[in-house]
Design goal:
339 residues; eleven-stranded mixed beta sheet; alpha/beta; 40% helix; D-Maltodextrin-Binding Protein, domain 2; 13 helices; 11 strands
Length: 339
């Protein structure tokens, strides 16, 4: 009898572990990779509509990936919201994400979602260049129109980009160059580009603000971020997309495996995939193209919609992340910034 009771107790504990994550706690913690203004607005609105207390921690993609790796056996957040899905693919390779096919995903085209529900896209952003027209005039350089233009000797020390080890934006740049040029020539280009760079930033949005404030002439960033800064008053900002072709991000949402409230996490994913929710971003200066087929794209995106895009391979980029970062470090000796 004692053995039977002990067996039943073990079964009950196992069931609790399996199904406890689906029990609603009334509290949701999110790791957010999108702009902070967007994260604030979205989480407040979700809490208002559902009554679920919702908080977020804003981190770049590299930081988020490092955090969920460290928390693998004791996950504190339930959702990863925003940022390029390359990092989501890398996280899934390590068993850190929970598949979930939302009923709302039927409104998201197949090329903007993982068929298994590992991640689902919420927006699309194009990579490009942001320049300060006043500084460019002072140093006698036209606004760069190609990747090759960034190697102009007159731009030495005038170029800022994030570090691909910490930033999803910069990793998109690295993976784009390798896909455009091949590994050997791509790494050689990154080595040459390294010689031009004044500073590696931690976040992919920082180059846009630095250029807008006149601290440097040119930055590499997602173009919708540069448009935001220009609208906020940095009138000297100009933008361009590289003529050889450029990469792009699909900003995703995913459920973290073993997160404390899977039920609330699923509700959040369902909510952010709706057209109405996706349109929140443009009310706070996030001008990405939207993935829901019924959502209205921000009019601010019209000036960049004709940018030449490469056939960016997100699966390859995600699975190759560690290898590419190691090779980038070996080629450049660039250290990941702490601030």
């Amino acid at each position: 009898m004692k053995k039977i009771i002990k067996y039943l107790a073990i079964m009950l504990l196992t069931a609790g572990a399996l199904f406890g994550a689906d029990k609603e706690t009334g509290h949701l913690l999110i790791y957010a990779g999108l702009m902070e203004d967007y994260a604030i607005k979205a989480t407040k609105e979700f809490e208002k509509q559902t009554g679920i207390k919702t908080e977020f921690v804003r981190m770049s993609s590299g930081e988020t990936l490092a955090r969920v790796r460290a928390e693998k056996d004791n996950m504190t957040a339930s959702v990863w919201y925003g940022g390029p899905v390359d990092a989501f693919v890398a996280a899934n390779e390590e068993g850190l994400l929970e598949p979930y096919v939302s009923p709302e995903a039927v409104n998201i085209p197949d090329n903007f979602k993982d068929k298994s529900g590992i991640w689902t896209g919420i927006y699309v952003g194009y990579l490009g260049f942001v320049g300060n027209k006043k500084l460019l005039k002072e140093i006698g350089v036209e606004m760069p129109q190609s990747w090759a233009d960034l190697l102009n000797p007159k731009l030495k020390g005038e170029l800022v980009t994030a570090h691909p080890g910490s930033s999803g934006t910069a990793y998109t740049m690295l993976a784009t160059i390798i896909q455009l040029k091949g590994e050997k020539d791509g790494l050689e280009y990154m080595k040459q580009l390294h010689g031009q760079i004044r500073q590696y930033t931690k976040s992919g949005t920082a180059p846009g603000t630095m250029v807008g404030m006149g601290e440097t002439a040119v930055g590499i960033t997602f173009l919708h971020d540069a448009i935001k800064y220009r609208k906020e008053g940095y009138e000297d900002i100009i933008i361009s997309a590289p003529s050889e072709g450029t990469g792009f991000e699909i900003g995703g949402v995913a459920i973290l495996k073993n997160g404390p409230d899977q039920a609330a996490a699923k509700k959040f994913v369902d909510w952010v995939l709706t057209a109405k929710t996706q349109e929140i971003g443009q009310t706070v200066g996030s001008y990405q193209f939207l993935t829901n087929k019924d959502a209205n794209n921000p009019p601010e995106g019209k000036e960049i919609e004709k940018a030449k895009l490469i056939e960016y391979d997100f699966q390859w980029a995600g699975k190759s992340r560690k290898e590419l970062l190691d090779k980038f470090s070996a080629a450049t000796n660039a250290e990941i910034p702490t601030k």
